[in-house]
Amino acid sequence: MRIIxxxxxxxxxxxxxxxxxxxxxxxxxxxxxxxxxxxxGSFEGLRVADLFAGSGALGMEALSRGAEHCLFVxxxxxxxxxxxxxISTLGAQRRTDVQSGSVLRMGPARAPVxxxxxxxxxxxxxxxxxxxxxxxxxxxxxxxxIALETARxxxxxxxxxxxxxxxxxxxxxxxxxxxxEQSEQxxxxxxxxxxxxxxxxxxx
Length: 204
Prior knowledge:
It contains four helices and eight strands; from the N terminus they run H-E-H-E-H-E-E-H-E-E-E-E.
């Protein structure tokens, strides 16, 4: 598993062993960050949260592309050890915070993040639950870009959010979401883009 672009391009990352986590394949990350880049332009100065972080590959990719800071949240102890190793290997300690625990037990935010990356276990509905809670706790504003990865067969459940774009890559589905402005609350969710990327043989 490697960083795709930016300061740490081609640097290798460790991935947790076993079935407790499911690292996002390189091709899936490449597609996800292509979608985000076309919307945010530069990652310079952005504040990011990588939830259900696993090895931290998504957040590390954002930092490599210039993000100012990333919060990683992961509850699997073995994955947290790998995550801390990857942060140390890249020398990213000053630009990161790591919370060992459940995403669903996060406290209130000091301020909303610019980008929220969620890669919850497939088929659990944890992403939808997390989004509802994080919105109430102030992690998400209408300016926040949310990237949610689910199984290809699992449409993103994001009641109250606008679906900006959706793409399928191999066995994964990537959905970009926004929180409506207050004046838009109550309107139907809108899907503006749906694409299927070529199948990938990249290992998860």
